[in-house]
Amino acid sequence: MKPIITAFENSPDGGQGLARDMRVRWAMEEVGLAYDVRLVSFKTMKQHAHTSRQPFGQIPTYEDGDIVIFESGAIVLHIAQHHPGLLPADEPGQARAMAWLFSALSTIEPTIVEREQVYFTERDKPWYEDRLPLIDDQIRSRLNPLSARLGDADWLDGSFSAGDLMMVMVLRRLEPEMLTEYPNLAAYVARAEQRPAYQRAFAAQKAVADAARAG
């Protein structure tokens, strides 16, 4: 039996690889793990069959025998811990890779997502034009040390790891203009996007979006 993940039947991102199932698809491809996908609609995501696996009615979920987990970070970490290819062989290196994975989710991503939400929910408000630069400054306060730490290295800590995978996926959510302010981070993302495993994962999720548009 292959693991089963859930993904949007019709993703809001239209196949740009921003939905969080992309993170799990990429991790699976990196370790050479075959998987099946259960596509869910927004209506299905709120029904008991899905919320019994994901209490908040979101995607992705991961099922492999008796193991049923949710949250993209938890799923990627589980895959990395049970299949070689996404964590260093030494324990200190593994710990650092996990720290980068969690920093992507806890330190870098929240303000980026906040900026996305503000655009959709507050752009008609009188304070929008004043608030946006404040959020941008908050994002830069995270990107500045990240850029300094990466420097001219290919990856954050030696070889490519689950930490890089998650960090790249988070950085892809940035406004393109802001990412270009950090040439080494832009090159970092571009380098990751050239990995064959990334390209296979991107093609797989885009095929779902293309099929949804075709009707």
Secondary-structure blueprint of this entry?
Elements: E1 4-8, H1 21-31, E2 36-40, H2 42-45, H3 48-51, E3 61-64, E4 67-70, H4 72-82, H5 91-122, H6 128-150, H7 162-171, H8 176-179, H9 183-193, H10 196-214
Q: What is the CA-atom radius of gyration, in angstroms?
A: 18 Å
Structural class: alpha+beta
- The share of residues in extended strands comes to 5-15%
What is the count of β-strands? Answer: 4
The helix content, as a percent range, equals 55-70%
Which tags fit this structure?
alpha+beta, four-stranded mixed β-sheet, 10 helices
How would you portray this structure in words?
By secondary structure, this protein is an alpha+beta fold. It has helices at 21-31, 42-45, 48-51, 72-82, 91-122, 128-150, 162-171, 176-179, 183-193, 196-214; strands spanning 4-8, 36-40, 61-64, 67-70. It contains 10 helices and 4 strands; from the N terminus they run βαβααββααααααα.
Summarize the structure.
This protein has helices at residues 21-31, 42-45, 48-51, 72-82, 91-122, 128-150, 162-171, 176-179, 183-193, 196-214; strands at residues 4-8, 36-40, 61-64, 67-70.
